[in-house]
Amino acid sequence: MQKGFILLFFSLLVETLSAQKTIGDCVSNIFISADSIRKMGKSPDIEWKSCVMGKPMQNFAAKSINDNRIEMHKLKGKIVVINFWFIDCYPCIAELPALNKLVEEYKGKDIEFLAMTWETPKRIREDFLTKYKLDFTIIPVDRNEIDKIVASGYPTTFIIDRKGIIKAAWNGGRTDEKAVIEFYEKAKPVIDELIKTE
Prior knowledge:
Elements: H1 2-20, H2 23-32, H3 34-39, H4 44-52, E1 61-63, E2 69-71, E3 79-84, H5 90-94, H6 96-105, E4 111-117, H7 121-128, E5 137-140, H8 143-147, E6 156-160, E7 166-171, H9 179-197
Parallel strand pairs: 3-4, 4-5
Antiparallel strand pairs: 1-2, 3-6, 6-7
């Protein structure tokens, strides 16, 4: 009886401590020990996703490329889609049509689409926007800040509910013909469910 109680208590304690981790903890704990995780037969990406799901999105404050101030805590009450990318990332570029299709579909809805990158505003304007179209709000952020949230695999995406909680997360992408629709097909059901239930 006492042994069962101790095991139950320990299990609840582990769950509580896990729930208190921030997404920054998930990044540092999982990707720093990626080799150990692989040796246990697990995937660091799956462990990362499992860790960040249900956690509050880390707060940040930054200016968009159009000089609009964006603060995560002020976006509560809205569904937020954040895509982390960089210019030389082929899967990031390949999924642009899917990102833009999503923005077009939810135009006028209470949804924020943010594209965060460590690229400089100058490089974004000269080397990216002259060649590509991205309808997300583009936000240049210091690389060190991004590394607290994303540590492996680009693009990385979070879909966050109106309370600021991460409801979907994935990283990596494709460069084949499916890339032009895959992001849309992953994100749309999550967004539709959040719209319906909130």
